[in-house]
Amino acid sequence: MNRITVKSTDKAEFYQQMVKQHGSPLLILDCDQLVQQFNALSHALTDVKFYYAIKALPHPAAIQTLDALGAGFDIATTGELELLREQGSQARQTIHTHPIKRDTDIRDALRFGCTTFVVDNIWELEKFIDYRHRVGLLVRVSFPNPDTPIDLSRKFGCREDEVSILIQKAQSLGLHIKGLSFHAGSQCPDSGNHVHAIEQCTKIINDVYKNSGKLLSILDIGGGFPVEYMQKTMDIESFCSPIRDALKQLPEHIQIIAEPGRYLSAPAMKAVSSVMGKAKRGDACWYYLDDGIYGSYSGQLFDHATYPLTIFSDIKETEQAVLAGPTCDSIDVIAEQVSMPPLSIGDIVVGHQMGAYTSATSTHFNLFDKAKIVAINQPVKTVDNLLLLNK
Amino acid sequence: MKTYTETLYDSYGQEFSVDKVYFENKTDHQHLVIFENAKFGRVMALDGIIQTTEADEFIYHEMLTHVPLMAHGDVKHVLIIGGGDGGMLREVCKHASVAHITQVEIDDQVVDMCKEYLPNHSAGAYDDPRVQIVIDDGANFVRECTDKFDVIISDSTDPIGPGDVLFTSDFYANCKKCLTDDGVLVTQNGVAYMQLDEVTTTAKRLQPYFSDQTFYSAAVPTYIGGIMTFAWASNNPALRTVTTDTITQRFEAANIKTRYYNPAIHMASFALPQYILDALESNT
Fold first, then answer.
1. Shortest CA distance from B28: residue in chain A
2. A299, A336, A375, B211: most buried, per Cβ within 10 A?
3. Tens digit of pLDDT for each residue in B81-91?
4. How far apart (Å, rounded) are the C-alpha atoms in residues A33 and A161?
5. In angstroms, what CA-CA distances link B229 with A10, A360, B107, B173, B215?
């Protein structure tokens, strides 16, 4: 259930101003917060190169902010690389991590200048035969994690014992496997599965070298770094500490990379919506907001997330309430059985931690417009990063 | 200091210092840039791959032009596919015996842009009265064309990119249709050491249509990784057995000034390293 915090009405002024200027519903992207998240993760995992998984929040301001910090980018589609191209990001700093690709996806990525790809099966490997002199591949290994809301080792990733078979096959095809990757799960409650996966990958890397002389040089430890929605989560330092210890067991030459998406973007965006109607139905007061499950709150369905909310009221008395989205579908309900002070039409509701998998998965159902994203505290564009050339 | 890094290969590449950017375009799902480099002059790159530089383009353009024209000896009609930078046109125009040159470029903006930012490539060749510029897809042009040419030069981009149709069996078959009986098709065919597959694939696709098919080569510094191969395809094997003396006579008669090409280079360029011969051998 969503936690609703009530703040006094004078605290609403910033949001009211933003709505006045940009309209409602809104998503406010705070680039400073992105910088803070990036720095916190960099501090917790020094010597790890981060490739922002832009699927979480594919927004130009997020790309520009992270680009300026020296982050690379994890892309999965041609649409995502087009966004990077428009922002002038360096193609050398991208990895294509979709384990299943069409030939045209591979060609588009190569034309963009991305030469790192991920495979997890023989059929995928064979798709690279024509491009074998140009690419370096990572093999994605599956490490199921039933403890996470989204187990990312179910749909993708080969078994540990399949890695050496894939590497042999690659060698016979003249393809270069340069490392391994895994995804320990999304929004992991602890880093146990990361540690397990790193230990197993260390073993695989050593075994592969011992048995075939093939040198692997990269380990991609994926994402899964948690952010706080409703439940208390581990702070990033405590979460990463066991990962750091596990990484020490890797051969010294291995370069470690990661693909954080949610951790970087989730805290950086807030959703601002307005009450567009209300009705008394039974014991509860229904409030119809101008954003909902088919819009920015889509993550409550697709991402299994529940977002903390804030309302603004100076009334002490509370009543039973339902916060619903604007569409005609009855599934479009954000929060039920909540107890809160009454709201008026036009009042504002703010959703927190709404940067990851929110607008990215929103729809145009009912032909409602998607919430507009307004970026604040954006890094100043210099002449240098207007050019697409490497700096 | 600004740099431009080529992204052709995952584990190997070249980097240029960028003294000045003259032109940059990132629309139409591609990234085109022309910049100044101290060693190579003006450099044009498309989608992370070096296309041409002022300093070393002469090797490429001379070899794709003078080798087929001198081997043939009586070229009147030339078709250039691609080559929007005008370098190929400049070399073909040096031959006074050529009566008519058709150049097919997919995008007229490329021609205008190159005239402006790479003027030394075309060096005024676009104003030659023998030249006809056609704006069309090269593959489409040869499919529909009913004219015959003595030499067809395919000056394409990398096969992963807009030039991919210029490496297909269909394209080669249509080129054959557009060639005179003694005609020859030459194509840009990649750097063999880095992309040996391009040599074997092209050989496989050309051989059904041409009784004499081979490759010749030259090293172009900014096409990194060793020698670049040029595909050669003709139904007149005699073009390749013309003697050095004859080539020398023709070259002297043509009175053309070159910086890479000469009759000895002409003859020697058909000698292929053993790793290419072995790959072609196991290809059949």
1. A82
2. A299
3. 999 999 999 99
4. 41
5. 74, 47, 26, 20, 6
SS3 for A126-183 is HCCHHHCCCCEEEEEECCCCCCCCECCCCCCCECHHHHHHHHHHHHHHCCCEEEEEEC
Beta-bridged to residue B212, according to DSSP, are B234
Q: Prior bond to A25 cis, omega within 30?
A: yes
Instruction: Please judge whether B29 and A82 are an interchain contact, meaning their C-beta atoms are less than 8 angstroms apart.
Output: yes
Closest by CA to B194, choosing from B282, B270, B276, is B276
User: Phi-psi category of A210—alpha, beta or left, where left has phi over 0 and alpha has psi -120 to 50?
Assistant: alpha
Would you say the C-alpha torsion B248, B249, B250, B252 has a positive or negative sign?
positive
Chain pair A-B, CB pairs under 8 angstroms? 70
Distance from CA of A133 to the nearest CA of B (A): 6
Which pLDDT band, with edges at 50, 70 and 90, does A391 fall under?
very low
Sign of the CA dihedral running A61, A66, A67, A72:
negative
pLDDT band at A388 (very low <50, low <70, confident <90, very high): very low
Contact A258, A51 (CB under 8 A): yes
Tell me the pairing of strands B49-53 and B77-82: unpaired
The answer to whether the CB atoms of A113 and B29 lie below 8 A apart is: no
Q: Phi, psi (5° rounding) for residue B160?
A: -100, 90
Determine how many CB atoms are found less than 10 A away from the CB of residue A104.
Answer: 9
Can you tell me the ipTM of this complex?
Answer: 0.83
**How far is the C-alpha of A242 from the C-alpha of A65, rounded, in Å?**
29
Query: What are A325's two structure tokens?
Result: 């989205």
Taking an 8 Å cut-off on Cβ atoms, the answer to whether B26 and A178 are in contact is no
CB A227 within 8 A of CB A265: no
Q: Both tokens of residue A9?
A: 């009405």
pLDDT in tens, B96-137: 999 999 999 998 888 999 999 999 999 999 999 999 999 999
Q: Inform me whether the pLDDT recorded for A385 exceeds 80.
A: no
Measured CA to CA, the distance from residue B78 to residue B101 in angstroms comes to: 5
* pLDDT at position B148 over 80: yes
Which residues fall within 8 angstroms of residue B271, CB to CB, at 6 or more apart? none
